[in-house]
């Protein structure tokens, strides 16, 4: 129902998009995107107790609960042609990083789309991509790890100490926590014909509910990058 209303509300906007020959931000789409992200954040916070086991996912959920000063802004809208060019650039960089890693990393190298697929993608005038920026203050996981587990060399070891960290993030310690400010971005695709609107991945930004979970629990940031397993400074 929401998609139908969104589509009807944007009929005039679509005509303007075609006539003007360029993409512009539609208020209804902007509102939909911000509401969707906020809804995903609330869904993570409201994960039922029975689904929270003593594992790394529960630690992530707790970090999302503790995140504060969350701000979301839709900053830009681009064409399919512009988006695929960004995607291909990020794909090349990602694959180059993975090829330099071990067997696990190399197994995750992605095959680029064919020239025909790329050309077809570029020709799609019905789909545009909205870019959003999200900022927040999140628990400084690096400082906590240094304090309680100075022997840790990188974030890949987090699995074996998650219960210790989870205990420290309890309500009674809330005032003792150190925070860090972070900023991330992501994309939503919007089909101007059907009104369909959802997360899109450029391979670097936040995509989907799991991306929001990662961003607010630090896993989405460069210093905690699972692909490069960067050392804790």
Structural description of this entry:
45% of the residues lie in helices and 18% in strands. The chain is of the alpha+beta class and 233 residues long. The chain has one domain. It has a 4-stranded antiparallel beta sheet with strand order 1-2-3-4. Helix 4 (56-66) packs parallel to helix 9 (162-168) and helix 5 packs antiparallel against helix 7 (115-123). Residues 7-21 and 220-233 have low confidence and may be disordered.
Report the span from N to C terminus: 49 Å
Number of helices: 10
Oligomer: single chain
Average per-residue pLDDT, rounded, comes to: 81
Shape: globular
Give the amount of beta strand, in percent. Answer: 15-25%
Helix and strand pattern: HHHHEHHHEHHEEH
How do the strands and helices of this protein lay out in sequence?
Layout: H1 2-9, H2 11-20, H3 27-45, H4 56-66, E1 68-79, H5 80-99, H6 103-106, H7 115-123, E2 127-139, H8 141-148, H9 162-168, E3 179-191, E4 197-200, H10 208-216
């Amino acid at each position: 129902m929401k998609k139908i209303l969104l589509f009807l509300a944007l009929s005039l906007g679509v005509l303007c998009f075609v006539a003007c020959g360029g993409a512009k931000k539609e208020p209804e789409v902007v509102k939909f995107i911000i509401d969707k992200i906020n809804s995903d954040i609330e869904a993570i916070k409201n994960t039922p107790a029975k689904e929270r086991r003593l594992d790394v996912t529960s630690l992530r959920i707790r970090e999302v609960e503790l995140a504060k000063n969350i701000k979301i802004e839709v900053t830009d809208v681009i064409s399919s042609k512009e988006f695929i060019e960004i995607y291909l650039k990020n794909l090349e960089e990602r694959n180059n990083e993975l090829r330099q890693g071990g067997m696990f990393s190399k197994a995750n190298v992605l095959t680029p789309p064919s020239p025909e697929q790329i050309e077809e993608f570029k020709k799609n005038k019905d789909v545009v991509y909205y870019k959003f920026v999200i900022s927040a203050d999140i628990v400084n996981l690096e400082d906590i790890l240094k304090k309680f587990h100075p022997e840790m060399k990188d974030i890949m070891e987090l699995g074996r100490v998650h219960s210790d960290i989870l205990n420290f993030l309890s309500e009674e310690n809330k005032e003792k926590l150190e925070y860090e400010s972070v900023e991330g971005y992501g994309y939503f695709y919007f089909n101007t014909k059907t009104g369909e609107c959802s997360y899109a991945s450029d391979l670097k930004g936040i995509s989907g509910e799991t991306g929001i979970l990662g961003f607010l629990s630090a896993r989405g940031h460069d210093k905690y990058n699972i692909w490069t397993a960067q050392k804790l400074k």
